[in-house]
Amino acid sequence: MQLRNLLVSALAFAAAGIEVKGITDTNWDDVIHHPDPAAPSKLLQVVKKTQLDINQKVYIENSPVLGDGAGEGALNNCQSFADAHVANPAAPTVKVCGTGIKATFFLRGRCEGYYEHQKTVGSCNKGAASESCESWSPTNDARFGAYQSYLIEQC
Fold it and tell me: Residue 102 in 3-state DSSP?
């Protein structure tokens, strides 16, 4: 009965767009043969809602790559800069808006860190105005013009 309730809860969370963690690393033999009344609360950890509000936006060279009509496909997925941005040492200019997301930019492709050569842009400050933005470009640090990939994540 508890297992059924657990699965129904997981499906309901998934339908509501909420990530659920803790199910895959569960010892199912213990759950089935040694029921625990508190099992559902121990197994399910509600993480962050995956749907972003309208204030969460990321722009590269003034073009939206997240939010503002671009959708949320770039969220939690490593992205490469366009060849034109990598080839131009004066580009890219990036802007991250909202207090619920951050973008980390990497010198290497595939969103791999390399010593100090990554830059995180985004306030992640719930006390800041919801429409606040942070920008970064090679004018702040010339090395940024050689960066190749980025990852947008929720705070």
Answer: strand
